[in-house]
Write a structure and sequence with these properties.
Immunoglobulin-like, alpha+beta, 9 strands
Length: 172
């Protein structure tokens, strides 16, 4: 009788285990069958690429169709910080066949008066049946700030003052 009770407890546990395996195997199969289609990859540079304020900064991106279907009407856009200019060449891709890829030029131009720091530009590839988003992290490093010029002027005035004082009082 004790063995019969143990078997009765084992049946529900076995049924739950088999149910979990069935659900996982069907979801794994579905995950392999359904493919997103669009893949975005930044070709140039690396993480935290440096950009110069007020200048054109060129990046290259590959758009790949990893599905078995043709993707049409891919529109490119960007979510960017205020005042920044982001241009794509080409701005749209009419047809991208299965397994094919295209290279897109991205021109990122921060404004002249931008502060030094790290910024994010989000690139969006949007088609009728697929959408992908990729972030590009950029770093703005200004060469010489305004305070460096103020410091250089102060140093020049002090040096000029010492030269005048030593010339005037140095021969006495």
């Amino acid at each position: 009788m004790a063995a019969g009770r143990k078997i009765l407890f084992l049946y529900p546990a076995l049924a739950c285990f088999l149910g979990v395996i069935a659900v996982l195997s069907s979801s794994l199969t579905l995950a392999q069958e359904v493919r997103a289609g669009l893949d975005l990859r930044l070709v140039s540079g690396g993480f935290n690429d440096e950009v110069n304020p007020g200048e054109d900064n060129l990046f290259f991106m590959e758009i790949t169709n990893s599905s078995s279907d043709t993707i049409t009407n891919i529109e490119l856009s960007a979510d960017k910080p205020e005042g920044w200019i982001v241009e794509f060449a080409p701005e749209a891709i009419d047809v991208l066949s299965a397994g094919d890829y295209r290279t897109v030029d991205i021109n990122i131009k921060p404004p002249d008066n931008i502060n030094k720091g790290r910024y994010t530009v989000t690139v969006i590839a949007d088609a009728a049946d697929a959408r992908r988003v990729m972030s590009i992290f950029v770093r703005v490093e200004q060469g010489i700030s305004d305070w460096a010029w103020v410091g250089a002027i102060v140093v020049a005035v002090v040096v000029t003052g010492f030269v005048i004082i030593f010339r005037r009082f140095g021969r006495q």
